[in-house]
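Continued from yesterday's entry.
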Amino acid sequence: MVEFWWTYIWPVIWILLQILAIVVPLLVGVAYLTYAERKVIAAMHLRRGPNVVGVYGLLQPIADGMKLFFKETVIPSGANRIVFVMAPMITFSLALVAWAVIPLGDGLVVADINVGILYLFAISSLGVYGVLMAGWASNSKYAFLGALRSAAQMVSYEISMGFIIITVLIVAGSLNLSDIVNAQKESVWFIIPLFPMAVIFFISTLAETNRHPFDLPEAEAELVAGYFVEYSSMTFALFFLGEYANMILMAGMTTILFFGGWLPPFDIAPFNWLPGPIWFIIKMCMLLFIFLWVRATFPRYRYDQLMRLGWKVFLPISLAAVVIVGGVVLAFDISPLANAAASK
């Protein structure tokens, strides 16, 4: 019985505990990211933001969640009920399962697989299915147009993101996310040699998460609310949570690929007194602040401008970067992990 417990039962319990240790803080982070967004934008607009529910409005996300939870779920009479309900569940679930391969610290990862970056890219690419399903199942022209916009937008910017990720992989010499961070420990953060790629990657993450100035799938001026116009109560809340969870995920990806993951800026006191996961969270918060800053600053793009930027600007630049970075690494043999292994 003891052998059965340690062989079969305990590993399952341990995996569930690891999942909870990631999902619960992530859900709290998503809730308070909405609060942070309202406060940051209010400060930029010289307003107060949430300030009634709780001290400094800190209970506002909980109040919003309770309101959505107790509302009636209305499904349009002409909608495909099964697909209509499945769409927000898929969007939200994909935003959570991607965190299985994100290393929060040295060894602090649920699944340290050797193709972690491919897993992440695959999961982020699947996010378009939830949006497409919502638009099609709603039986509404506004929702359907929003879904078509989102599909075209995500595909357009995922191509550039893929090429930029390839440039990082060429420099790091590994598809493992922990190895990519360790490669930056052996040399410099990749934001320094790959700065133009980091800028394009971050702008592409704005388009990938349907955030300003690329929130065309939910443009209220012409599409009411886009692909989730027919959603209410908890089905709407799952889309809402999925969008903000994707923002946190993209900030985490950018941190790992370009900002050294859990590494401190300088490996000297007092910087290395802080644990790695704290540095990881600090970097993510700085990137999320830029997400919010962009929303308060830039007007929305027209759709033709959005497509032009993706196909005529970012795609040629990222494709050229793959060739240039690959040539430089091959010519000068400067892969950090390969050099570190050779020195040992």
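--- second protein ---
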Amino acid sequence: MSYKESTTPPDGYDVGRENMLDFKIDEQFEMLEQSDAKNFILTTVDEVFNWAKLSSIWPVTFGLACCAIEMIAASATRYDIDRFGAGAFRATPRQADLMIVSGTVTAKMARRLKLIYDQMPEPKWVMAMGSCAIGGGPYFKYGYHVVKGVDYMVPVDIYVPGCPPRPEVLLEGLMRLQDKIRGRQGKMVTPKWVQDYAKKIPYQK
């Protein structure tokens, strides 16, 4: 007796179950191709170039004093400055486009700093990190050997205050530099604790 397979489903069998394995790949690919033909982006060449610049800021390996320790910490794994595309610290100024002046600039170092800045290709930016680089810091009054602000030597784009500023502050300054490259003006929001502290300071005319 030969076995013959039945083509009629048994009672209660749901015929729609066979269609569950039909994923309709061809129809989905066709819909995907049609949708891709409609997708387009409107922008300008300047915005594309600025996006490329702000996404690949290469700082020059240039540390002067205690602020450089915080800059090194910002490039480590805890803060990971590579998230912003700025972790490729270059050993030569000819491959860098950002100078982070991290520390005290003495009169002897000022000439070297200006030389490194001149060797950097355009476009280039400068970030003054810490009180000493911004205005001389604690050496402002009696430090005859300290430059009272690196902006006397090179044009500064971003000022990062602190003595020394923490890595989070350096990353904040980096994001403000990205806003400047993008062409947007950042909105300064004063924290509430600053306003409360300012009210407690005695003021005399």
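The longest strand covers residues 98-102. Residues 84 and 175 are 8 Å apart (CA to CA). Will compare against the first tomorrow.
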